[in-house]
Design a protein that fits this description.
The complex is a heterodimer of chains A (243) and B (234). Chain A has two helices and 24 strands. By secondary structure, chain A is mostly beta strands. Chain A folds into two domains: 20-133, Distorted Sandwich (Glucose Permease (Domain IIA)); 139-242, Immunoglobulin-like (Sandwich), CATH 2.60.40. The longest helix of chain A has 15 residues, at 2-16. Chain B has helices spanning 2-19, 226-233, and strands at residues 58-64, 67-72, 77-79, 82-83, 92-100, 106-113, 116-124, 127-136, 146-149, 152-157, 160-165, 171-174, 179-185, 191-197, 203-209, 214-219. A four-stranded antiparallel β-sheet of chain B has the order 1-2-3-4, with no helix packed on it. A four-stranded antiparallel β-sheet of chain B has the order 5-6-7-8, with no helix packed on it. At the A-B interface, helix 1, strand 6, strand 7, strand 8 and strand 18 of A face helix 1 and strand 5 of B.
């Protein structure tokens, strides 16, 4: 009896730790959560894919011409757009994890997660395993405004591309860290730990992240920017700013 | 002692995993992970609200005399640019269909799951009041058929197509075999044509009177336009 209880405990614990699967195994991300999409925040991620599979077991809440929304037990909706819905899906409202939902219409899937409880989009990368990124984030350059102590970090693609953390060090000392772990979209703004960012604020001018109130000393300053993606891969940018 | 220890570890692990589910590293309560080194704060920003709403996915749209209505996946219902309370009572409030009467007096909405509910709103002094409601079967997850023909509402339900006359409060059902594919109706409130297909994929047209009486049923070649039949009947 005790062995059975132990076994049940382990099974339940394992189930509670399970993550969502990629809806397009092997597919590469072409646009990430929060990146620019027609002048607005991208509500999900775009993945190169031909076939689309259920990221988790659930119940079909809605399907239309090119969209499927599946409701899951934890008040999360997985939303698959740009999909020609499988005929089987129209007859059975319950889907299993990994079940074929349909085929993409133009080889690209838009995949979003919506939290009904929190009433906001959340980054699918936070809840989804085995999605590979196509490329690492890149830093193009730095600029510094002496009047406001504003350091701007210019990214290569005006997008977050799976960004997890941006860290700024001056002369070897970490002075700022901006984490995107809890970045989500609510009411048209990106929300990060109760702080809301409108589009222009999050990306700044020319796709730059801005860090205010950084005081650099007169003369040469060695500035290091470390950008980390969701999988821990790091890009280090070394710069020198002369004030 | 050793046996108790081995029992406590998995129980503790189980309790911990339920209290702090990892879900691939997610944190749904927006408590920011402390990435900053001690003494350093993450960069902060002034809060802004953009003029656009959240932009949740729109599932249906209708326009009547002097107003328009949109329904959304998350249950939001926008009428004339303003939110109208979605009265669906279940956990999911998804709006599956909206229809507007030509004279702008009525709005109908199919929304929610468990129960999935049909609402008819009537406009009175610039406000929309619920005029009629009925629970429908929960198995349809696409945009169901919903339309006004004058003061008559036609809608898809588990039995086929139902007719609700808002003047007389009379109610009729049109029953047919197979899966609903298309519906058309004459504006003179005389005929309703329904296209359905059976399991073998054969499509048939069923011709009804508005009171639910079946007039005729015949094979559909898929090429005829229901709208054209509509004209012939007139």
């Amino acid at each position: 009896m005790r062995k059975i209880i132990l076994l049940c405990c382990f099974i339940l614990a394992a189930v509670s730790l399970a993550a969502y699967d990629s809806p397009a195994p092997g597919g590469k991300i072409t646009a990430s959560f929060g990146s620019e999409s027609k002048g607005q925040f991208n509500t999900g991620i775009d993945i190169n894919a031909e076939e689309v599979f259920a990221a988790e077991s659930g119940e079909v809440l809605y399907y239309g011409d090119n969209l499927v929304a599946v409701a899951h037990a934890d008040s999360i909706l997985t939303i698959y757009s740009n999909v020609a819905v499988s005929e089987a899906l129209t007859k059975d409202i319950h889907v299993n994890k990994g079940q074929l939902l349909g085929k993409t219409k133009e080889g690209s899937l838009h995949f979003a997660l919506y939290d009904l409880e929190m009433e906001q989009y959340i980054n699918p990368l936070l809840m989804t395993d085995n999605i590979k990124r196509s490329e690492l984030p890149k830093v193009k350059g730095l600029s510094y405004d002496t009047s406001g102590g504003m350091l701007s970090v210019y990214m290569s693609d005006r997008g977050l591309l799976g960004l997890y953390k941006v860290q700024v060090s001056v002369d070897g000392q970490v002075v700022r860290t901006l984490g995107f772990r809890t970045l989500c979209l609510k009411d048209g703004v990106m929300v990060l730990d109760r702080e809301a960012f409108e589009y222009g604020t999050l990306y700044g001018r020319q796709g730059a992240f801005t860090f205010p109130d950084i005081q650099l000393k007169s003369g040469d300053n060695s500035v290091d920017i470390i950008v980390t993606d969701f999988y821990g891969k790091k890009v280090v940018f070394h710069g020198r700013i002369t004030v | 002692m050793e046996k108790k220890f081995f029992l406590i570890i998995p129980l503790f692990f189980l309790l911990f995993s339920f209290l702090f589910p990892l879900k691939g590293g997610s944190d749904r309560h927006l408590v920011q992970e402390s990435d900053s080194p001690k003494g350093e704060n993450p960069v902060s920003s002034t809060s802004y609200v953009t003029p656009q709403p959240a932009g949740m996915i729109r599932t249906c749209y209708a326009a009547g005399e002097g107003f328009s209505a949109s329904g959304f996946l998350d249950g939001t219902l926008i009428v004339d640019g303003r939110p109208l309370e979605n009265r669906a009572s279940g956990k999911y409030k998804t709006v599956y269909a909206v229809a507007a009467s030509d004279d702008g007096r009525y709005l109908s909405v199919i929304a929610g799951l468990y129960p999935r509910t049909l609402f008819v709103y009537q406009k009175k002094q610039e406000s929309w009041n619920i005029f009629h409601r009925a629970n429908l079967a929960d198995d349809v997850r696409r945009n169901p058929f919903l339309a006004f023909s004058g003061d008559i509402l036609l809608y898809e339900d588990e039995s086929g197509i139902s007719v609700f006359n808002m003047t007389t409060f009379s109610h009729y059902s049109m029953r047919f075999s197979g899966t609903l594919k298309d519906v058309d109706y004459s504006p003179d409130q005389e005929y309703v044509w329904v296209v359905s297909d059976d399991e073998a994929g054969e499509e048939r047209i069923h011709m009804f009177l508005y009171n639910g009486s079946l007039v005729a049923t015949f094979p559909y070649d898929g090429r005829s336009d229901l709208g054209a039949m509509h004209v012939v009947e007139q």
